[in-house]
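#data-curation
PF: Archiving a pair of folding outputs for the training set. Convention for this channel: one message per protein, sequence first, structure tokens after, nothing in between. First:
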Amino acid sequence: MSAVDAAGQLDAVQAALAAEHAAVYGYGVVGGRVGDDQENEAAAAHAAHRARRDSLERTVRDLGGEPSAAAAAYALPFSVPDAAAAIRLAAVLEDRVAGVYADLVRATDGPLRLDAAGALREAAVRAVRWRGSGVAFPGLAERAADQD
């Protein structure tokens, strides 16, 4: 494999970090709206995204960058008035995270690439759990659109 572009790698890690910040925020909304039967699943996903966020912050520093900070709030893609909308939001959050991890897989090599592939897989599995179905190419929006 050719040498990875250091600036592109850092940009991709920062993008993944930004997506994890948004997912942590979004799961705060999801957790407050899902029913009791899915509260534990939402809490587990929230914890997983916090752990990934913290790991990515360390990675940015290891790459010589300054981790991007979380925003005070994030615009949600739609209104989330009830449990059904919260479940849809959780699936959307996971799809978005999978997308940035797919980009990170493309931008990196070695252990970072392996970790990004694992994060992509985890997000895809959580999306399936929330949605009840999967997509042919999780994390690749251009491929998912071809399946519609």
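PF: Second:
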Amino acid sequence: MQRTKLTNAECPIARSLDEVGEWWSILLMRDALQGLKRFDEFSQSLGIAPNMLTRRLNALVDAGMLKRVPYSQRPLRHEYLPTAKGKDFSRVLMAFIDWGNRHYAADGESVQVVHHETGARLQLAFTDPADGRAVAPQDCAVQPGPVASAQMRERLTLKQRLEASAGEQMLDQPRRKG
């Protein structure tokens, strides 16, 4: 069965998952961003089958997340280094750490996100570009962007319409006398 490609999907989540949604790819990017470079280092870290590791590394190179750089000519061997696009993926990994710690660290956190200079623990937040003010993820929402299709606008406003409809239904119900 042929896997559906999401490369041309309008949703940025769908497009992103098309490139790195396979869990081996995410773990490979984690390791690459933590400094692993060579095939044997990835293999040892992940315990992944060599044929799967080759496929995943090739896919990440094709996606522009990693670049393949020779480090030995005889025999020809390559290192895999994060590109600028790959380095940007660290934000996604930090969000995974934050979310995983909140929901799957019953015995305590094995990994924390900290400031690299001070060691102070950090929390996931977004920044308002106008004033640099931090905004917690729960205070964020999504909305259609300037090039959103009618279908995307419809999908993104569905929740608001459902909430409005539920509110109207509550108003239409007769009040019980108690």
